[in-house]
Specification:
This protein has 268 residues and is α+β, with helices and mostly antiparallel strands. It contains 9 helices and 7 strands. The strands form 3 sheets. A 3-stranded antiparallel β-sheet has the order 2-1-7. The chain has a two-stranded antiparallel sheet with strand order 3-6. The protein binds iron/sulfur cluster.
Length: 268
């Protein structure tokens, strides 16, 4: 069986005032960015775990529990690489499950198309390029609240639990709250306390893999992922693992030298 050459390196990293020491194993050969997702998911998990530790030290408990999918009815923007990755995950599912999931995606997308929600979101995002304003902020909150009020669940939600938990997007990993769980049914900035984390891997990865494919912000909403995957090809470039990691860590830490130690090769 052919083995993929991997590189292993120790990483000492400061992210937003938190210190992390990790061992990363990454592909040596050029790969699409989605191949890097397991590494960045692991790093996200560590950042979030540290955030939970800090919250607990301050006497705050995380309200999120198994079988609470209240937050899974929000308009979530994910990265292009995750769009293609999740579309492939759906294709790999058994026929019956795949058909059910695809139908939920179609119905969810059509529901918000009828409300003209995607076009209004794109128009508002366009206006935001001119800079923030209180009025625009209020309009955005109202538009997001309108989406949430429709109670359209993420197609992956089963019995109020994520059915793709191990593969869930980075942004889902980062979203935890310390405010009462019941507030998540109608979350607003003034009733929801999101768990602070030292750095957002979802944001860094989104910037890293952005291509001209995603001209309209709404095209990368999770509820539209199948539509996007069916109408676009994955145009992301291939780069070796250390290059993806270096640039990702620069975006994550806002540092020129994020501190990746020299990698050593090993077969995996
Ligand atoms: S992918 Fe999973 S965690 Fe994310 S919104 Fe969907 S059901 Fe919730």
């Amino acid at each position: 069986m052919e083995t993929e050459e991997m590189l292993s390196g120790d990483l000492k990293l400061d992210i937003g005032g938190e210190h992390f020491e990790l061992n990363l194993t990454i592909p040596a050969a050029p790969v699409k960015p989605r191949r890097m997702l397991p590494v960045f998911q692991m790093l996200t998990n560590q950042i979030v775990a540290r955030g939970i530790e800090r919250a607990n030290e301050e006497g705050k408990a995380i309200s999120c529990k198994a079988a609470c999918g209240a937050c899974c009815r929000q308009p979530l923007l994910i990265s292009e690489a995750e769009v293609f990755d999740l579309a492939d995950l759906i294709e790999s599912m058994p026929f019956e499950r795949r058909t059910t999931i695809k139908q939920r995606f179609r119905e969810g997308r059509e529901y918000f198309e009828k409300l003209d929600w995607f076009n209004r979101f794109d128009a508002m995002s366009e206006r935001a390029k001119a800079g923030p304003s209180d009025e625009l902020g209020r309009e955005f909150v109202a538009l997001l609240s309108e989406y949430i009020a429709q109670r359209v669940a993420c197609p992956f939600l089963e019995d109020e639990s994520c059915s793709i938990y191990e593969d869930r997007p980075l942004i889902c990993r980062e979203y935890l709250v310390t405010s009462p769980a019941e507030n998540c049914a109608a979350p607003r900035p003034d009733n929801t306390a999101k768990l602070p984390i030292s750095g957002s891997a979802a944001r860094a990865f989104g910037l890293l893999v952005k291509t001209e494919n995603s001209a309209k912000p709404s095209s990368l909403l999770l509820i539209r992922l199948l539509e996007f995957a069916e109408t676009h090809t994955d145009r992301s470039m291939e780069r070796i693992g250390p290059e993806w990691t270096d640039d990702f860590l620069r975006l994550l830490t806002d540092r020129k030298d994020p501190g990746l130690a020299g990698p050593k090769a090993e077969a995996a």
